[in-house]
């Protein structure tokens, strides 16, 4: 029993392992096993374990302790096994998977062993985890290979695997050749098959483009992945080799019998045979029926089609009848249903002529006894519908239809089969429907027309489109009032129509009264422009338009238009009744004046520490100043470095507030203000770039404020304000800096010589003595340079000239640019003009004598030119002003550039003045006036001409980037405007759209247009002089392309188009033509070329040249398709292929052929197929046969090598065995594990090589066996004498159960462990699942 207990405990452990594999919580099983063992060990004595124990009933039964596993199959009687503990366990399938990838050392990209876990390799792994979402763990194997464990969802792991292979493993490449027509099956729909294959094999597969004649597919990746990818690609190609395509030519007239009514016959054939049958539609003039599928299926379908064709050809006869062209559509029926119905009822095919044909002959084709019945059906369907018309003026159509089609709906609901059609611009209504319903509908329509004509009238008035919005009113208020008051309909054209006709329709009296009111409103209409500075527009409008809304509410009849903010225009337009416009503009002027007056601002610098005192407690001080001075005072933020307080309001109020603020500052600190006189010429240099110098002085001197006068004022006074000590310090620094800036020559001498130069101070007696201190050499050099400087200064002269004050501005404007240019050109001559307002004409020049004379001469020339400046004016009609000033004054700029900078000034918009001022040199002004007169003459003579050219030619006429149209515009001096393109894909507008018109929604349709009028999208508008426009029209028409056709075989079309149209686009760009290739379903052999006549010949020649190239390629492909089959014993196939395909790849590459080996399931296992040029295929065959001949000469010998040395001979990753095989040119085969003779090794090769290899192997065995003998330790023998630990123990309590299988029999023998009945199998052994192949994670 003790033995049985041990066995039971082992069995229990096995059960625990299975529970874990089924993903049941292991802790439950562990507690159950522990509790049962503990209870039996702790609660049962040896006596209790005896068979006769009284507490035997407390023991668990075998079935309770070990519940049986559920049966896989149902019991024979069909009953279900009762549920037990096992059935409650439901396996949960995890969505996470783990895979381990190995990268051998020789294939690793990063082999630096010292940086494992660091460097680029670690960064790449982190990037892969971030991109894919998978978790990666790396480890290094003993052979320095890399093991990567990837965990995550399946798609994440597959993406990570692909990244690992491409970024951590060195890449190899190989090519596989399959027929070109099989490439598309490798790519799959939208490239899905190719993507799946790349992901599955972790490789990159490159397939040649369709226009590339190569059949080689390039594969890049690991060697293992390349082999898998090649295998999959070859499988796909082999699968396609089994499919077939058959084309059966059947006369077009018999196609309806092949397809059958509603395609039933062809559908039945496809279902019966499994093949796909493609019958061309009736609109395509092709006789070929294409059948695709397996060869047997295709053959069966071809037989069925030919059977129907032969039968119908034999039995069918034909009759022709005349049916009116207008009735053909009734015979055809919707989507051809009527023809199918006739075919289904009678078995007769009805052939209707095309719609573009004028023929009225209908042909019936079928068996003679059925033709009569079919003819009756044709006439019945042709006469089932009638067409009639009702006369009605076109302007009444919308009233007949009614709002949202209400009037028509009453008729069409009663007679739903009658179709009523309104043609735009025609005075009739077309009715179409069953004959029996037509008379009633026609009479109803005529009655409606008579009624409307008797009580309706219309009129049209002409109003400029710019006034339409005023007539409509805000939200349509004006126009809706007129409609309701006079019971009329007023149609004002939308802005995009640019029409000036307003149509009034309704009661005759109401039409007259509405017309009078609209005209009276137009007579009182006034438009006025007002100039308001652009910067004030946002203030006038207010936040969210609140302020302008108040103005509009006050003057509701006036429309106020502000310019677009991006235009920076100052013109605001007012439109409305005359009196209201005047009131509104006066109100706006007053508002603007107040804004301008209140927008004066002044900046007051105040020391930062006094800002809080100016604000006061709770803002009391600043609030008081604001209220008393009525100003806006803005202080900088606390965290800002700015000390400037900005005061905004009226000028007087701002000055008062400024004085109040400064007074507070003076009260709080010892603030003084000092003025320092420094020459204004030095001010800019003292301030420095962006205030750099003066800011540094202010910061260094306690933050004093230094104020320089405005530039160009000529004032020398500089104001310094701040604490007394800081002001004195700042004054000294300013004067010192001024002295430095003014002593540039002395500083230059100091820098050149290194000597110190001391000038006399104000207290020194000898003011002419300059002291030089330094080394003897530096003093001598400085003295020399000073003497030269003094000599040059003696040459400095000061002169003056008289310049009329009216010309002063020309010299000093633009920051004295003219004076700077004179100083640069004439040796730094200083020119000083008198201060503004003195009216002095004396100008001083100071510098070297020669330079001063030259500068005076130059200034005299400038003044002479200025004296020649005249100001003239000319009269220009205000309607032409816009032409000159538009596009930012481009025309004026061109005139100024062409005529010596003449300034042309037009009056402000809104002044209605026609006086234009011209200023410049007299000759230039006269020439400019003449040029402007020519422009005005052109504008007066300008006409607008429409040129109708179909839209499809517009792009060709424009040329690349509009170059052709720009050339015509320049050559003929005209403006050309092309219409907007019409969208061919746009949905047609329904006949009764709900549109917003004149402020209300109206469902009434638009007026019909003249069908003979050209489409808007075809009309090109030209503006300019009439003769120039006509010449431009001729030039445009000369650019309309013409078309020619070129015969090109349909099979070559896709190669001409190229991948994604690249080929045809290249030809179109090269020859500047449009090449149209017919749709594939047409299978036409004609290609159309459209373009300029000069380009067509070159394009045709280029296309034919391309055709010749493609035909040559086709011939080359045919030559490359030569096939050669040789028979080779399958046992030689691996040797011919070579290790990893090395041998066969070399043969393929060397001879440029494709070599196919038989598949595993192929009947002809000895057949090898070679495809390529005939001579290449024969050369490849000879190479293969040469290899076979060498292989046939080889012998194989078995030798006995102790299995313990096999691993040593093979070496790490097979390096040892490969070395032996390469050295002796033999093949070695070692036994697999479990082989009958583990010591048997087979050597194959040439006899002499085999003998040498065997000798070498036996020598290695002898050498390695010595090492094996040394490494093995002696077997440990257990001593005969036992120890205390081995003494027999007392009987163990063990684990006891009742009703066990071994207690059922009469014998007390131990259970037979080999018996499957007593110990049933639990299935295959499941290894315990560990968290990681290399142990738990460490954190």
Automatic annotation (TrEMBL):
The keyword Repeat applies. InterPro entries: KH_dom, KH_dom_type_1, KH_dom_type_1_sf, KH_Vigilin_N. Appears to play a role in cell sterol metabolism. It may function to protect cells from over-accumulation of cholesterol. Keywords: Acetylation, Cholesterol metabolism, Cytoplasm, HDL, Lipid metabolism, Lipid transport, Nucleus, Phosphoprotein, Repeat, RNA-binding, Steroid metabolism, Sterol metabolism, Transport. It comes from Acipenser ruthenus (Sterlet sturgeon). GO terms for molecular function: mRNA binding. It is found in: Cytoplasm; Nucleus. Its main location: cytoplasm. This is Vigilin. GO terms for cellular component: cytoplasm; high-density lipoprotein particle; nucleus. The keyword NAD does not apply. Residues 170-238, 242-310, 315-383, 384-450, 455-523, 524-593, 598-666, 670-739, 741-791, 795-864, 868-937, 941-1041, 1042-1108, 1120-1189, 1193-1262 form the K Homology domain. GO terms for biological process: cholesterol metabolic process; lipid transport.
């Amino acid at each position: 029993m003790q033995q049985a207990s041990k066995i039971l405990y082992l069995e229990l452990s096995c059960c625990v392992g299975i529970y874990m594999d089924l993903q049941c919580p292991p802790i439950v099983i562990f507690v159950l096993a522990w509790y049962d063992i503990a209870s039996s060990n702790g609660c049962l004595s040896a006596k209790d374990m005896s068979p006769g124990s009284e507490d035997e009933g407390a023991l668990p039964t075998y079935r309770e302790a070990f519940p049986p596993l559920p049966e896989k199959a149902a019991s024979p009687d069909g009953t279900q096994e009762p549920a037990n503990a096992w059935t409650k366990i439901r396996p949960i399938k995890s969505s996470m998977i783990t895979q381990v990838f190995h990268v051998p050392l020789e294939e690793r990209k990063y082999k630096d062993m010292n940086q494992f876990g660091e460097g680029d390799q670690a960064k790449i792994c982190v990037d892969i985890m971030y991109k894919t979402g998978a978790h990666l763990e790396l480890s290094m194997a003993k052979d320095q290979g890399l093991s990567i464990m990837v965990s995550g969802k399946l798609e994440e792991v597959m993406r990570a695997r692909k990244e690992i292979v491409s970024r951590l493993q060195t890449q190899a490449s190989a090519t596989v050749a399959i027929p070109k027509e099989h490439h598309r099956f490798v790519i799959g729909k939208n490239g899905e098959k190719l993507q799946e294959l790349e992901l599955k094999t972790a490789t990159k597969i490159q397939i040649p483009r369709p226009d590339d004649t190569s059949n080689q597919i390039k594969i890049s990746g690991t060697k293992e992945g390349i082999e898998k990818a090649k295998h999959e690609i070859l499988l796909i190609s082999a699968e396609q080799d089994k499919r077939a395509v058959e084309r059966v030519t059947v006369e077009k007239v018999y196609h309806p019998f092949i397809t059958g009514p509603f395609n039933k016959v062809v559908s039945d054939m496809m279902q019966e045979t499994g093949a796909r049958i493609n019958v061309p539609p009736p609109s395509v003039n092709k006789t070929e029926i294409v059948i695709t599928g397996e060869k047997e299926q295709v053959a069966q379908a071809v037989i069925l089609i030919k059977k129907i064709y032969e039968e119908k050809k034999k039995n069918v006869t034909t009759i022709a009848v005349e049916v009116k062209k207008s009735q053909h559509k009734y015979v055809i029926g919707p989507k051809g249903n009527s023809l199918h119905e006739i075919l289904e009822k009678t078995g007769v095919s009805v052939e209707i002529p095309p719609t573009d044909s004028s023929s009225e002959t209908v042909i019936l084709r079928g068996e003679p006894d059925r033709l009569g019945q079919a003819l009756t059906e044709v006439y019945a369907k042709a006469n089932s519908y009638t067409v009639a018309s009702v006369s009605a003026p076109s302007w009444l159509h919308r009233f007949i239809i009614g709002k949202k089609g209400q009037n028509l709906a009453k008729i069409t609901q009663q007679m739903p089969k009658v179709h009523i059609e309104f043609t735009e611009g025609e005075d009739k209504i077309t009715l179409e429907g069953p004959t029996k319903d037509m008379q009633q509908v026609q009479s109803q329509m005529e009655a409606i027309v008579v009624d409307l004509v008797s009580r309706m009238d219309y009129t049209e008035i002409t109003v400029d489109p710019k006034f339409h919005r005023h007539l409509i009113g805000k939200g349509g208020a004006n126009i809706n009032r007129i409609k309701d008051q006079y019971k009329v309909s007023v149609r004002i054209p939308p802005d995009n129509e640019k029409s000036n006709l307003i149509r009034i329709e309704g009661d005759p009296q109401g039409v007259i009264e509405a017309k009078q009111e609209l005209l009276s409103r137009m007579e009182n209409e006034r438009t006025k422009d007002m100039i308001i500075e652009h910067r004030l527009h946002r203030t006038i409008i207010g936040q969210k338009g609140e302020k302008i809304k108040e103005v509009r509410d006050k003057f509701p009849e006036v429309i106020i238009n502000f310019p677009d903010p991006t235009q920076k225009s100052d013109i605001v337009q007012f439109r409305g009744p005359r009196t209201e416009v005047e009131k509104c503009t006066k109100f706006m002027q007053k508002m603007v004046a107040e804004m301008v007056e209140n927008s004066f601002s002044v900046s007051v610098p105040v020391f930062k520490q006094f800002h809080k005192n100016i604000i006061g407690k709770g803002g009391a001080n600043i609030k008081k100043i604001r209220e008393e001075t009525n100003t806006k005072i803005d202080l900088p933020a606390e965290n800002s470095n700015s000390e400037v307080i900005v005061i905004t309001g009226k000028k007087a109020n701002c000055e008062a507030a400024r004085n109040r603020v400064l007074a507070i500052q003076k009260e709080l600190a010892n603030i003084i203000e000092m003025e320092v006189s420094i020459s204004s010429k030095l001010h800019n240099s003292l301030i420095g770039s962006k205030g750099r110098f003066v800011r540094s002085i202010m910061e260094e001197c306690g933050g004093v404020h230094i104020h320089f006068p405005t530039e160009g004022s000529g004032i020398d006074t500089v104001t310094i304000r701040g604490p007394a000590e800081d002001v004195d310090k700042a004054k000294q620094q300013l004067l010192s800096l001024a002295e430095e800036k003014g002593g540039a020559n002395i500083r230059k001498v100091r820098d050149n010589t290194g000597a110190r130069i001391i000038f006399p101070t104000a207290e020194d007696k000898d003011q002419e003595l300059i002291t030089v201190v330094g080394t003897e050499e530096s003093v001598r050099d400085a003295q020399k340079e000073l003497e030269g400087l003094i000599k040059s200064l003696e040459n400095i002269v000061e002169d003056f000239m008289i310049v009329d004050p009216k010309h002063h501005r020309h010299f000093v404007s633009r920051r004295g640019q003219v004076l700077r240019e004179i100083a640069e050109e004439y040796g730094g001559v200083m020119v000083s003009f008198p201060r503004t307002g003195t009216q002095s004409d004396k100008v001083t020049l100071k510098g070297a004598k020669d330079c001063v004379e030259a500068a005076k001469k130059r200034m005299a020339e400038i003044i002479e030119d200025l004296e020649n400046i005249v100001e003239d004016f000319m009269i220009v009609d205000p309607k032409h002003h816009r032409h000159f000033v538009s596009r930012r004054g481009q025309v004026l700029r061109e005139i100024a550039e062409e005529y010596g900078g003449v300034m042309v000034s037009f009056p402000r918009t809104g002044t209605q003045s026609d006086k234009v001022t011209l200023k410049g040199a007299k000759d230039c002004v006269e020439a400019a006036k003449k040029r402007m007169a020519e422009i005005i003459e052109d504008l007066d003579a300008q006409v607008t001409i429409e040129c109708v050219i179909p839209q499809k030619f517009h792009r060709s006429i424009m040329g690349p980037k509009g170059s052709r149209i720009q050339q015509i515009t320049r050559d003929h001096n005209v403006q050309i405007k092309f219409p907007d393109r019409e969208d061919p894909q746009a949905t047609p507008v329904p006949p009764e759209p709900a549109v917003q018109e004149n402020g209300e929604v109206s469902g009434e349709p638009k007026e019909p247009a003249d069908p003979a009028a050209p489409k808007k999208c075809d009309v090109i508008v030209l503006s300019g002089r009439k003769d120039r426009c006509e010449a431009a029209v001729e030039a445009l028409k000369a650019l309309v392309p013409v078309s020619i056709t070129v015969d090109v075989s349909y099979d070559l079309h896709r190669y001409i188009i190229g991948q994604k149209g690249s080929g045809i686009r290249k030809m179109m760009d090269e020859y500047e033509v449009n090449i149209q290739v017919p749709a594939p379903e047409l299978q036409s052999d004609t290609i159309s070329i459209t373009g300029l006549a000069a380009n067509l010949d070159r394009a045709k020649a280029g296309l034919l040249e391309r055709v010749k190239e493609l035909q040559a390629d086709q011939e080359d492909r045919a030559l490359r398709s030569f096939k050669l089959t040789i028979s080779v014993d399958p046992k030689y196939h691996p040797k011919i292929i070579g290790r990893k395909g090395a041998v066969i790849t070399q043969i393929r590459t060397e001879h440029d052929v494709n070599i196919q080996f038989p598949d595993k399931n192929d009947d002809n296992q000895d057949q090898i197929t070679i495809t390529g040029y005939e001579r290449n295929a024969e050369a490849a065959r000879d190479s293969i046969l040469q290899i076979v001949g060498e292989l046939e000469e080889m012998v194989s010998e078995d030798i006995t090598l102790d299995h313990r040395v096999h691993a040593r001979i093979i070496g790490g990753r097979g390096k040892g065995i490969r070395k032996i095989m390469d050295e002796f040119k033999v093949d070695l085969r070692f036994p697999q594990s479990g082989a009958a003779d583990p010591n048997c090794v087979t050597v194959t090769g040439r006899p002499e090589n085999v003998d040498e290899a065997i000798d070498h192997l036996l020598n290695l065995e002898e050498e390695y066996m010595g090492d094996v003998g040394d490494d093995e330790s002696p077997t440990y023998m257990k001593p005969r004498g036992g120890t205390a630990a081995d003494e027999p123990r007392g009987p163990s309590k063990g684990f006891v159960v009742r009703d066990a299988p071994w207690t059922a029999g009469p014998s007390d023998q131990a259970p037979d462990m080999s018996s499957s009945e007593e110990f049933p199998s639990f299935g295959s052994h499941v290894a315990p699942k560990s968290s990681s192949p290399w142990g738990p994670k460490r954190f």
